[in-house]
Please model this.
Amino acid sequence: SDGSQPSQGSGGGGVHGWGPGLTVVNCTIVANRGGDSYDFPGCGGIHSAHQAGGTTVVNCIVWNNVGGAGQIPAANEIGGIGAATVSYSDVKGGMTGVANLDVDPLLVSDFHLDDASLCRDAGDALHPALGARDVDGDPRVLGGAVDLGSDEFNVGLYPALGEDLSLETVVNYGGRPGDSIKFIRSGDVLDVRMASPGISYSPASFWLLGSPFPTGSAPAASPGYPGFRLDPLDLIILAPGPLPFSDGGWPQGRRWFFLIGPSYPSWSLMIQGFALDASAANGWFAATEAHELRFD
Model:
């Protein structure tokens, strides 16, 4: 939940728990305002209104909320007449509990985590209510542990070496092009964009390669060529060639569209773009970051 409008009556701004036993898991509750009421103003973030069962909060970010006005002002972040058990969460002002944080979560403009956020890998990956995917449909656990909040950080997981070459992937014309891992299934349309923003490399030198692997066992970076993220013994030439159903231009680059054929559950395809150019740092090729296409 995020917003700036107050709730109605005495309700909580982000979450209002009326019934017993409310559990809030992996939510980002930011910049809400509790309802104003002379007797019972609402808390800004999470309002626990049931005395019997209380509220359990796990793996959440509760930040910069404002409690409603009343005879006794409500708590800004988490409060109410019901008990709240908070763990593995980042709460402004702090909360007693296991592995809680009180640090700026470093959210970017669309409420996703910044690369430097301490909320990355700070959650409880064993909680029984943990979902399989995040708010974007990305895999829920990427990295050492689950991230806090609704977003699982999914950028730059298979980095390149900082050369003037970029890769974007979009499935079914939607989603975040820079995310490192995407789910795909038979019949999906994959849009791949490769570019040299600084015009260091000609689009005529671009190649798109792939390597299949069992999900969870991504190829390691090559010791001799650390920017090479594919299995050199199991390479597929994806483009140029007959596989894309559309091969066209893109600003300072190329754009290919693919129709996904049969699905292979428990398998992934790592893809990476290359510019074959002797001016590259290694004298052979420049490489993009790699993206994992995970069969659903």
Observations:
- The longest strand covers residues 285-295.
- The chain has no helices and 18 strands.
- Confidence is low (pLDDT under 50) at residues 2-9.
- Residues 23 and 112 are 22 Å apart (CA to CA).
